[in-house]
Every structure is written in C-alpha cells, then in structure tokens.
Write the structure tokens for this entry.
Amino acid sequence: MEYINEISIMEAVVHILDINSDEPILNEYNLELNDEVYRFVQRHIERALKDEELKYAVFNPGRGIVKELAQEFLQGQSDFLEVSKELARNLFNLIKTNNSIPSCDLMIVHFSTEYGPMLGIFKMDYVKNYTHKIEFVDNKMNIRIVPQATGLPVSSQKIQKCAFIKPVIDDMEFHLMVIDKQGKKGEGDEYGAKYFLNSYLGCTLINNKRDITKNFLNAAESWTRSNAVNDAVKAENIRTTVKKSLRDAENIDIRELSENLFQNEGEKKSFVEFVAAQGLEEKLPIDKEWVEKKLKRVRLKIDKEIDLYINEDTYHDGDRFEIQRNGDGSINMVIKHVMNYIEK
C-alpha cells in the first residue's frame, strides 16, 4: 500500500449538486484556503487516506470523462476551476437520472504528496444538523430547535465516496485510490450497484498488499471461529502462530503455514481450501506497515461476556499477562501485578 504522509493543498473548490435543481450550482471561485478551511480540507484528505476502505483502482480501457479531465489537468493542460466544473456536471447528470443518488456538495482538491500531485474528488453527502431559531411571538421571545438538512460532514466524519487520482504513466500498478461505501438504502438499485465506480469514475478495483494481508487475517480468524469451537487452547495457538508469521515474514506460504499450524491432515487441507475460497493465492505478500498498526493492540471477546483490550507488548509479557492451559481445552487468562485500575 502506498501510504501518504506529506500533503500540501494547492487549490480546492466546492460545487452544489442538488437533485431538485435543473442545473448544478457551479462555483466561479476557488475556496479561500485560510487556516480554518485549509485544516477542514486537509483533515478530510488525511482521514480518507487512512480509511480501511480505501482501495486501489485502474481506469477502464477506452475513453472516460473523469479520466480524461483529470489527466489533462494533472499534465498541466487545463485550468483547475474549469476541470472541476466539468467533473461536477458529469456527476450531476448521473444524479438527475437516478433518484436514489442523494444531493451533495462536490469538493475537488488539487494537492501534492511525496509521490507527486493528485486530484481529489469528494462526494460530500449532506448531514442533518440542528440549530436554534429565534422568533418573537406576542412580543415574547420564542427559541426553537430547527433542522438543517444541508450540513457538510465535519472533519471527524468519514466520507462515503471519494477518489484520489494520479498522473497516469505506463506500467503503473494503479491509477487512483477510491472509497466507495454502500449505504443500506441503496441495495439493489444503481446507487447500491457502485455507480460512483462504474458510471462516474469508470474504473475497476484491484487488490493491493494491504487488502491481501487484511483478507488473509480475516480468513484465518473465520476458519478458527468455525473449527476451534470450545477449544481455547487450539484457537490461541492458531492466532498466535498466524500473527507471528505476519510480523516475521515478508510473504506467507499458506500450505507451509498450515503444516506448522496443524498435525491433522484434514485440518491442513481444510485451512488451505478455506483460504483459497476467499480468492487468495497460496503465496501472499504481506503489508508490514498495516500489520504493525493492526497488531499493536489485541482485542479479546471472552465467552461473550468480557471485552479485553491489551497492547501487543503486554500480551506477550509473561510478568504482566499469562495464558495458562488447563488440560481440558480451556485456558485461564491471568492479569498480573495490578497496581492501579479505573472503571469506565
């Protein structure tokens, strides 16, 4: 995964795409990037780039409006504001053809990174906020709470649909990074059928090392939950071995891992086949940065009644935490030498 840490915003603009209007409301000026607005835009970019749902994608072969507009701009052949208007018109046309797609503000951002320039597209669906309204009734003050239906997502909220487009050159692994989260209300129609990817951006998702690593860890956990029921010793051994392999190796050989995990031939075969059924190859590259972040903390749900959060170092520190095997498939989890605790 290409983790971006350096962001410098060059230009940004917002257009209004209201399904009740005949035309999009297009801005004639870039946003004034004062300190507050700059931080608002920056935090949305940073939050989206760190989102677990961020995927790699490649533009589909042939012509595509978003692809061509973005590439013309990133190659210095067109004006930012005019390109942003065309991007807004294109999405507005899709909104007008499908009542399932909600109105929004469309924020377009030009920014630079340690990997080069990018064009960001954010579909900012409206959030219902509330404010007060002051009226005078019979010469008396009446203060009411009223809803505002067109509030923008604050910087602490996750954007549901956005894209980060790179300058396309030959032999690139990917052309853009995309978030396309599906809302429950849209299931089954064009809105739920990934219109943002297919009809607007014209791209296809591809797996990267982070996706592969994440999918493998989820597959191993799913297999463990189904095949180590009421056998905490077995489950703990599988989880510990899998995590150690993720931390220590650059690549994982699923068949070799299964040999280390199990003595039973049936379980070895079952594990390999289950991982393959998730669309994963037998030899997998590991995203070490994602692993480092993911395994920093261990969250345990114990007998459906106890939640336990432990950082990785403590989990493996025998002076502070110990797993004792009872010989009947059960284990004791012992927290040692507690000097201070609080209730939350």
About this structure: The two ends are 36 Å apart (CA to CA). The chain has a mean pLDDT of 90.
